[in-house]
Write a structure and sequence with these properties.
Layout: E1 4-5, E2 8-14, H1 30-43, E3 47-55, E4 63-70, H2 79-98, E5 108-113, H3 124-129, E6 134-139, E7 148-157, E8 160-165, E9 169-174, E10 178-183, H4 187-192, E11 194-195, E12 205-206, H5 212-218
């Protein structure tokens, strides 16, 4: 399933219920949030691609709870679908916090979006579905081999990702030791992706999120 050209994004500012936090500590339990969000996405017929906390681009010092999801039928979410998932997730977080859970410890933006063209590869099936396209794969710190690999995906073999790296040639990378991976924007990728439904396009906030935070995490 090929992804769309472009990604819709919808966001809102929320306030966490925690009153304090430890500097340098994680402000959210991503595993718990993922368990909370995944059923809400599934209820709408969507698949969760990624849940992450990142610095917001709003310039207010808050964090952003970024939720990437896709409709399996299209590989994307349009604006109305983003809004529907945002409402369900917001209600689910409210219910959990009213029950006494502290999920996020300070003000944050809730952002729901499509993965975009140069999408992150977060699930085993992503490496198989996008075989033949260029990708950048960063291994965990301490990995014995080459840590940053950029080349053409060859799919998935058992628990290894196959990639033909520019310098090293054909390489097998253990899936369990991958820190991050995403597609690389190329003419071939753009040509292969389907156009985003442009109805209501004037209302779309394009997903201009840079990869700076991911690049820092890779260092």
């Amino acid at each position: 399933m090929l992804a769309p050209r472009g990604a819709g994004t919808i966001g809102l500012l929320r306030h966490g219920r925690g009153l304090c936090f430890v500097c340098g500590a994680d402000l959210a339990d991503i595993a718990r949030l993922t368990r909370l969000i995944e059923p809400e996405a599934a209820a709408l017929g969507f698949e969760l691609v990624r849940v992450a906390m990142m610095p917001s681009e709003a310039g207010d010092g808050a964090q952003s709870l970024q939720i990437m999801a896709e409709d399996p039928a299209t590989g994307q979410l349009v604006l109305d679908q983003c809004a529907a998932l945002s409402r369900r997730v917001s209600d689910a977080i409210d219910a959990a916090e009213e029950a006494g859970e502290v999920l996020i410890e300070e003000a944050y933006h809730l952002e729901v979006s499509s993965p975009g063209i140069d999408r992150p590869l977060t699930r085993p099936k992503d490496f198989a579905n996008w075989a033949g396209f260029d990708a950048r794969i960063v291994m965990e710190k301490g990995y014995a081999g080459q840590r940053v690999n950029k080349g053409v995906l060859g799919g998935l073999e058992d628990d290894f990702v196959l990639i033909t790296e520019a310098k090293a040639g054909a390489v097998k990378l253990p899936l369990a030791e991958i820190h991050s991976a995403r597609l690389v924007l190329t003419d071939a990728l753009i040509a292969a992706t389907r156009p985003l439904d442009t109805s209501g396009a004037e209302e779309l906030l394009e997903d201009n999120t840079t990869h700076d935070e991911e690049e820092k995490a890779d260092d």
